[in-house]
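Q: I'm writing up a methods section and want to include an example of the input and output format. Could you take the sequence below and give the corresponding predicted structure tokens, formatted cleanly so I can copy it straight into the document?
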Amino acid sequence: MSLFERLDELAAQGEPAALLTIVRKDGSTPRDVGDKMIVTSDDEYGTIGGGTVEHLAVQDARSVLAGADDPGIRTYELERGGNTGMVCGGEMDVFIDRVRGQARLYIAGGGHISAELAPLAERLGYAVTVVDDREAYADPAQFPSDTDVMHGDYGDVLGDLPMGTETAVAVATRSGTFDQEAVAAALDGDAGYVGLVASETKADHVLDSLAESGYARRDLSRVRTPVGLDLGGSGPAAVALSILSEITMDRHDATGKRATRLNLDKLVVVRGGGDLGSGVVYRLKQAGFPVIVTEVQQPTVVRRAVAFGSALYENEVTVEGVTGRAATDIDEALALLADDVVPVLVDPEATVADELDATVLVDAIMAKGTFDTGTRRGDADVVVGMGPGFEADEDVDAVVETDRGHELGRVFYEGTASEYDGEPGERRGYTHERVLRAPTDGEWTPTVAIGDSVTAGDVVGRVDGLPVETEIDGLVRGLVHTGLSVSEGTKLGDVDPRGKSVDPTKISDKALCLGGGVLEAALRLR
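A: Here is the clean output for your methods example:
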């Protein structure tokens, strides 16, 4: 039997194999360009030279078969100091390709779902076999001519059929007892996919019964139930499509995600681009959510090195690898999202959430309950409030605790966060002393920069000509933007007494913690 005949035989049996071909040689090698061999998970056919070089190539081939490595060219050096330890004096390149076996679909049960699933699967290249223990349902006339239809007990018939990683078994019988027999046969045969069409109650009964009969929960976790992808629709044809979609997704190790360049199904709008809101944006962006930030025309951004709101002053800002950029309108915002950039819009009321039908709206204005921000439950599918001023399950869906302490970042799905006590966070015994505030109304002009070290009594800037002094030694961690019109008492910046041990370009632990809370709520409620 030739190698290609062997390869065809393996494919027909549904067994994947690796085909190894020498595509280049240089110097002395045991075989020539074009020589081939076949490797399966537990066998080999032909040779590309024997010895260490073949042993290494076989190992590489099995890594490709297992999905641990990609197909491609491997170079083997047959000389002293080379990667084979051989001393032939040459070198050869071997192309390792994965040849998939025939995709098979066994359907247990010849009812309405089977009648829709069989022809659909055959159009996609699956070899289909239908099994039913009732003669009336094991009727070849009900299925395409290429479908094998077998009459007999589910466990016996399926147990005699060849199975492997290229085999999918869809179980849709009329009874939990027969479901159990079919699922057991599929697990025993190491089928690549096992799906059970059943209600939650029926599925629990089948799996619990199999567990009681000795099947490990680890193996039972492979059973897909509820079966299929959530595609919507109803009726046998829709169920068949969802099952085959899942089978095909698993066979190709795909994600099932939309392949569109821009997917707004998970759009999050964050009201407020300060440092805490930006920690939320960062967490959500890293988790794969597209995020738009909305702000007022001139936001008071203190820790502007880690605040996406700064983009409204600087056009673009990058916070720990995530770029935010000012957008003039929704169309520009969508273009930025498509380029994997966080758009920052002047949109104080966050009307973009309604216009783009956002999935999640996060109020990160940090008003601390001092005024009504206008955020309401129903503004998006999921509405999350940060800190005091919101009541979960009433005006928002969830509230994230912002007060430092044991509850920081905790998500409340009923009730409120703790009330704001007016105390800034404590650092080395300092609270209010850390904060720089405007002594009068006027225009702010700083004389230091974020990251500078200062000493108590230093002038860090002026408001309408009046000096602003720091009360403590430390590192300037935040300053609002130059030229901002401020009112008396406005927070202008803060000084961290920990000094150079603090990196003002890194998102704070508090902001990341709050981001984790919002991410929890978004994933749980959407």
